[in-house]
Amino acid sequence: MRIVRFASWICAVAIVLLMAGAGVVARADAAPSASAAELKDAAAKAPTTATQAAGDPGATITGTVNDVPVSDAKAGLTLSDVANQVGQNKIGINFTWTLITGFLVMFMQAGFAMVEAGLCRVKNANHTYMMNFFVYGCGLFAYWIIGFAIQMGGAAGNGNLGGLQPLNSEHTLSMFGKTWGLFGQTGMFLSGHTYDVGVMVLFLFQMVFMDTALTIVTGACAERWKFLTFAVSSVLMGAFTYPLFANWAWGGGWLSQLGTNLGLGKGYCDFAGSGVVHAVGGLTALAVALIIGPRIGKFNRDGSSNAIIGHDISAVLIGCFILAFGWFGFNPGSTLGASGAGCLRISSVAVNTMLAGCTGTFGALLYMWSLKGKPDASMSGNGLLAGLVAITAPSGFVNTTGAAIIGFIAGVLVCFSVSFVENTLKVDDPVGAISVHGTCGLWGVLSVGLFADGTSNYGGAWNGVTGSVTGLFYGDASQLVAQLVGIATLVGFVFSFSFVLNWILDIVVGQRVSTATEVAGLDLPEMGQLGYPEFVFAPEPDYLRAAEKVALA
Amino acid sequence: MAATTSQGRTFTIFMAGLTVAAAGLAYVGSAGGKVALVLGVVIIAYSCTGFIKIKPLEGVTAVGAQPAVMKLAGVGIVLLGWLIVLFGLNLTPSVTGRMITTLLGLAVSLVGVLLVLPMASNKNAIWKA
């Protein structure tokens, strides 16, 4: 009897346990979590292949739950699959955005080539075009082998591009109780861990920026720069000069740390490179132009200057339009993404870019028309570029009113600067590159410290300092100091570094072509063929021919 | 002289040297990297001797001699201004103080860029002759 009673107990417990287990299963079947149920429901309602075979003119059945990859076919679609797809979509959007804007910036090389060649005489057209063509290769190669590593080797942490964790080594220096970044150390040849999809996106985008800086120099030194020296100088600039300053500003270097280390605003802020790209290019152009000297006939014995007219103003203006188009890659692309971390501000950045270009054109055109009597075409083009250069640094931090003011001031400033460089410094700059990129680049850097309105929010912080970049006019004077330190570094370090580097090149290689080559035009002696072989060249003005005779004698 | 095959060859050697040196630097932790670095530097030095050798073939250029001392002084002044800025940042924690030292340093640098170096560049300019 006791055995029967014991057996009954065992059976009862077993039945209870079984029932409990069944209950759990039953509850799971009967009441699954809402999200899992929704996933199943969505999968069940998804259009079949037969439905899709009928076509989708209304775009209502293309791109459904069926397109989300399933990691485990047995388990079916899970929340984890959906979350991973969302994350990859965000990074995919950012990759696509950054790459396409990088392609736009790359196309700016064509604009630079047209502007520079158009402003040169016809006998130097091939040489000027070739410098703009070959600078792309020189810069790209140098940047791949070492430049990118110096600039971005320690720039890990950008969430827009997936973290960029392979770029994790910045060489630092401890001074005054603080640690300061000096240069990056990973990414040479994009080898090792930097063989990474995110790093490749960053490389492409940063490379075309670097090449923009390099091509600025060719304009200021056109019509007299030896092609060999230009090539060596460009390689060294792409390998060292540009990457070093770019690291300090964008790669986690000491200028970007002025906020965290010294409490100066959000550190040096240069959204898309008025300083990093344009001022570096413009100041290097000034350094080389000082060494290389003016073209024959540019200045008279009394120091007055002669106009040496370019051969194709239509190429100049079309080139300016190409550059303005490319600038929509330059500035909005500098968010490094279109999804997350405040990146939707790309619309504001793009409009600021348009506006500053517009007001820059007005500034230069009205200045020339009012004071010189004609709405000068080349200066109007330079006004457009000046506005675009100036808005490059503040484009991500200012409102449209600020952008319009910044652009207008740049348009007027470029006219003053061209005159100052030519008539006071006695530096010959055939295309106005020193003024457009150097002067207006510095103005752009300064304007961040004045006009940044404190509304941007790129993930809640900039350069590691919480909050939004705010300039003097909106209450933060310390940001202006950070910008001035950046300007002082551009003038004090970048200019001297470029000057010494190119001085050494002058000693070793020689910067300038021979007088005979210069008089003949650089196309045949340097490049082996004329830019326009079927053109009948108009004779040069008397003052130029006289100066050439004197130089040859 | 203009462009010649010698220039093309020397530039090729320079690029090869730079590439080998950079490869050495990339793998400087290994013995092969160190060898490549030294080899690259040697190749670059060799290319520089080539540049110096072919430089006189260029002939007379239309640029006057620029006094080296004046150029050095100019670069020195520019750098001095930058150093004033750097050390000025640590002299005082106040924003106004830092702004003053930064502007002072910038002004010194600009003297070098806009006054001394253009003077050096134009001292013996051929257009003055």
Report how far apart the termini of chain A are.
135 Å
Tally of individual domains of chain B? 2
Largest sheet of chain A: 2 strands, antiparallel
**Main sheet: strand order of chain A:** 1-2
What does this structure look like?
- The complex is a heterodimer of chains A (553) and B (129).
- Chain A has 553 residues and is mostly helical.
- Chain A has a single domain, classed as Ammonium transporter AmtB like domains (Ammonium transporter fold).
- Chain A has 18 helices and four strands.
- In chain A, a hairpin with a 2-residue loop joins β3 and β4.
- In chain A, α4 (79-118) packs parallel to α6, α5 (125-152) crosses α6 and α7 runs antiparallel to α9 (274-292).
- Mean pLDDT of chain A is 90; it is low at 17-30.
- Chain B has two domains: 5-58; 68-128.
- Chain B has helices spanning 5-26, 31-54, 68-88, 95-122.
- In chain B, α1 (5-26) packs antiparallel against α2 (31-54) and α3 runs antiparallel to α4 (95-122).
- With 129 residues, chain B is mostly helical.
- Classes of the chains: A mainly alpha (553), B mainly alpha (129).
- At the A-B interface, α5, α7, α9, α15 and α16 of A face α1, α2, α3 and α4 of B.
